[in-house]
Amino acid sequence: MKFTKTSIPGVIVCEPSVFGDERGYFAETFRKDKFEEFIGRKIDFCQDNESKSGFGVLRGLHYQLPPFAQSKLVRVIEGKVLDVVVDIRKGSPTFSKYESIELSGENKKMLYIPRGFAHGFVVLSDYAIFSYKVDNYYSQEHERGLLYNDPALGIDWQLPIEKLQLSQKDKVQPTLDQIELFNFSSDLYA
């Protein structure tokens, strides 16, 4: 497995080795020992989630507050998405910056998102099956969101706004200047 740091410290692109022949392929998509060695700390993923979405569906930008903050390892099983993370750690040198990457069933890339980031994706193919591991359980009480088209962020979702399909909740999320932020200096969000 190959690990690549992004322009935002802590956000990591993971690429499994894929072995294929005329019968299909095999890929080791997660290996705890190698992953922990690269990130330099222990991780305990405790919940796996999966969603299926059609073209133009935008899910996000979501996060959870402590004590239910989550790190995520996300990937696409089928289809193609633009995956986006936004640094919402107050005091971080990359505060309010975003990183985006195309994840697909074809390229098999994954993205590791540490605690302290809002996360979302938009489907660029006819549909996508999206899968992710989290290191803390879902808590509706601690769930929060950030407005996908906040002008302060300037995210390029690669689709015209009229093609986007959002839940009612995601259409009215607060902007960056209105959300509860994470503290960059805390070990929990490194």
Automatic annotation (TrEMBL):
Enzyme class: isomerase
Gene3D superfamilies xrefs: Jelly Rolls (2.60.120.10)
Keywords, in A-Z order: Isomerase
GO terms of molecular function: dTDP-4-dehydrorhamnose 3,5-epimerase activity
UniProt record similarity statement: Belongs to the dTDP-4-dehydrorhamnose 3,5-epimerase family.
EC assignment: 5.1.3.13
Keyword Isomerase: yes
InterPro entries, per the entry: RmlC-like, RmlC-like_jellyroll, RmlC_Cupin_sf
SUPFAM superfamilies linked: RmlC-like cupins
Pathways involved: Carbohydrate biosynthesis; dTDP-L-rhamnose biosynthesis
PANTHER family assigned: DTDP-6-DEOXY-D-GLUCOSE-3,5 EPIMERASE (PTHR21047), THYMIDINE DIPHOSPHO-4-KETO-RHAMNOSE 3,5-EPIMERASE (PTHR21047:SF2)
Top-rank lineage group of the source organism: Bacteria
Name by which UniProt lists this protein: dTDP-4-dehydrorhamnose 3,5-epimerase
